[in-house]
Write a structure and sequence with these properties.
Layout: H1 8-19, E1 23-24, E2 36-38, E3 46-48, H2 55-77, H3 87-108, H4 112-148, H5 155-169, H6 196-213, H7 217-227, H8 235-241, H9 250-272
Parallel strand pairs: 1-3
Antiparallel strand pairs: 2-3
Length: 273
């Protein structure tokens, strides 16, 4: 029911996937940990889950179903050459589903204890995806600038840059000196320059979800068309066709506004308790 704003085509496709063996649901001996969506152009999507029958698992499943439905709709609409899609748009499809699920649960459940869990899940999603990944992107950008200006990257340089950024992002919080070495354990930094796309992804997703929740049928059509587009157009153009302009600051400001709303409600519930 949470994806009803996406229309019957999406709802029916998702129901078919859930009922036709897309998902390996529970833990098993020797099974890989975590949760992933995969598949090929000629197969149905497959989802690996280690479902724990809790709220976090519910949101994880919504996330992975977003990826799988993106693949299903793209593969059915595009030739093989355009069937892939960039991370920039991939995270939008998954995070729209998480945002819609959050909205559905907050609209339909009155129990304050349950609402706290839902709000906590949503707030943590923003912290880890919008706030923290922006911090990581700032670090990546600065160390690339060091190299481009002819400097050398040594551990002390990493420590200094990361420690300064950490202090700027978490200014009200006291931190010990060892946090400046956290960069060593972030696997994203050993890959190509891409972490900013998590922050842009959640910003675009929240902006889209807010429009879809209002019941705009034109927006619904634009979003489904976006999911069917694969890599047939550049990511920024695909999002622009849905009404989300990632060159502007509007999607990010909308996301921060929603984030503030979740924090305000959490504070009100805890204060009343």
């Amino acid at each position: 029911e949470s994806v009803s704003p996406l229309g019957e085509e999406y709802e029916n496709g998702l129901k078919d996937g859930v009922n036709s063996g897309w998902i390996d649901v529970y833990e098993n001996r020797g099974k890989y940990s975590g949760a992933y969506s995969g598949g090929t152009y000629d197969t149905k999507p497959f989802i690996l889950m280690n479902y724990q029958n809790d709220i976090q698992s519910m949101f994880t499943l919504a996330h992975e179903l977003g990826h799988s439905m993106h693949s299903r709709l793209t593969n059915a609409s595009q030739p093989y050459v355009y069937s892939g899609y960039d991370i920039f748009v991939a995270e939008v499809a998954s995070l729209v589903n998480e945002t819609l699920l959050t909205n559905y649960l907050l609209e339909t459940v009155e129990d304050e204890s349950f609402r706290i869990h839902v709000l906590d899940e949503a707030i943590e999603r923003f912290r880890s995806t919008l706030f923290r990944q922006t911090m990581f992107a700032d670090f990546e950008h600065q160390i690339h600038n060091v190299v481009e200006s002819g400097g050398a990257l040594i551990p002390d340089t990493f420590d200094e840059i990361y420690g300064k950024i950490k202090s700027e992002f978490y200014e009200p919080i006291g931190m010990d000196k060892y946090i400046q070495r956290e960069w060593m354990r972030i696997p994203h930094f050993y890959y190509n320059y891409y972490v900013y796309q998590y922050a842009t992804g959640i910003s675009a997703a929240v902006s889209l979800a807010q429009s879809l929740i209002k019941g705009d049928s034109c927006q619904q059509d634009r979003y489904i068309s976006f999911l069917k587009s694969g890599s047939s157009e550049y990511p920024l153009e695909l999002l622009k066709e849905t009404g989300v302009n990632m060159i502007s600051k509007e999607p990010i400001e909308k996301s921060i506004s929603v984030y503030e709303g979740y924090l305000t409600e959490m504070e009100l519930i805890i204060g009343d308790g």
